[in-house]
Amino acid sequence: MKGMSISKQVIDWYQSHGRHNLPWQIDKTLYTVWLSEVMLQQTSVKTVIPYFIRFRAYFPEIYHVAEAPVDKVLYFWSGLGYYARARNFHEAAKIILDKYSGIFPKTFFEIVNLPGIGRSTAGAILSLALGQHFPILDSNVKRVLSRYYGVVQSSNRRETEKHLWSISEKITPTKNVREFNQAIMDLGASLCKPLHPICTICPLNINCYAKIYNLFDYASKKEYKKTMPHHIKWLLVIQQGQEIWLDRRSSDGLWGGLFSFPQYNTEAELRLVLDKYKLNNFHIYFMEVIHHTFSHLHLDMIPIWVDLPISCEKINYGVVGCWYNLVQPPMIGIPAPVDRLLKKIFLFQHSMRKNK
């Protein structure tokens, strides 16, 4: 086993080349480390930093999160994606407030049983915040270990994951665990990238199995590659004055718990709604198609814009939703493509009024 050498090599590299000035490193508490680790799940550091700063400024402590409505938490998460993370974070904060008087627990068993926290995240929180001896296995660490030790099977397999956990346990040092865990994550993010790893300056390149046998791409390959599905949705944009109707989406599926335009699978479905509410009597505009790519699908959204006169009786166009004020936007969670379209409508109408 190469475990005795890898930890020292990685720590030595980190001390000279690692990241030491991230916002959650400068102000390191159990809360800030927890928040950063959740935000960093499937999201890059560069993307997370502004969201972390904004979230922390509005929710300085755990009890601020727990006492806030989930819509406000989702508002500050909007654009970061994977919104189940935000809902779980809010739910966990409420549990911490009720069960632990707002003080983040300090045992692995208590932490790993909170919503949205698995073994690796719990280990990262305790090791990075408190220096406790726990291994980690996030996607960056999986990639480093798979390549270095020649674990050639798909990293998604249970057997392979068990093997990688065993390696992580053996190489995680008792001393300097905080530095090692941060270092190996940094190494995976900055040098041992999924594509085009920078092997020439990697501190592990001499004994790395993937480097020696020129197999560095295998760790990021799936057993088979699916073509991402392409979905088309029709959006109903109902505007009355400065307000636009938004539906709250169900907690499961895309944009769970966020607010979005009413959405339909076909134009025929949308036309039925236009007939139901007698919206065909008003000005209807076909807007530019919105293209958006998720990690697992391509989505084209076709917005149909209905501009209702102020004199019309204002009604709700869904079971759960709200009238979104373009001038004074409410603090609710909105997906990035929806937010962009709302801003586009506002700017278009603002420019039209100025030119009159």
From TrEMBL:
It catalyses: Hydrolyzes free adenine bases from 7,8-dihydro-8-oxoguanine:adenine mismatched double-stranded DNA, leaving an apurinic site. Its EC number is 3.2.2.31. It is an enzyme of class 3 (hydrolase). Coiled coil: none annotated. The keyword DNA damage applies. One of its GO terms (biological process) is mismatch repair. InterPro entries: A/G_AdeGlyc_MutY, DNA_glycosylase, Endonuclease-III-like_CS2, HhH-GPD_domain, HhH_base_excis_C, HhH_motif, MIG/MutY, MutY_C. GO terms for molecular function: 4 iron, 4 sulfur cluster binding; 8-oxo-7,8-dihydroguanine DNA N-glycosylase activity; adenine/guanine mispair binding; metal ion binding; oxidized purine DNA binding; purine-specific mismatch base pair DNA N-glycosylase activity. Binds 1 [4Fe-4S] cluster. PROSITE patterns: ENDONUCLEASE_III_2 (PS01155). Its cofactor is [4Fe-4S] cluster. It comes from the Bacteria. The keyword DNA damage applies. Belongs to the Nth/MutY family. NCBIfam families: mutY, PRK10880.1. Adenine glycosylase active on G-A mispairs. MutY also corrects error-prone DNA synthesis past GO lesions which are due to the oxidatively damaged form of guanine: 7,8-dihydro-8-oxoguanine (8-oxo-dGTP). This is Adenine DNA glycosylase. It comes from Candidatus Erwinia haradaeae. The lineage of its organism: Bacteria, Pseudomonadati, Pseudomonadota, Gammaproteobacteria, Enterobacterales. The gene is mutY.
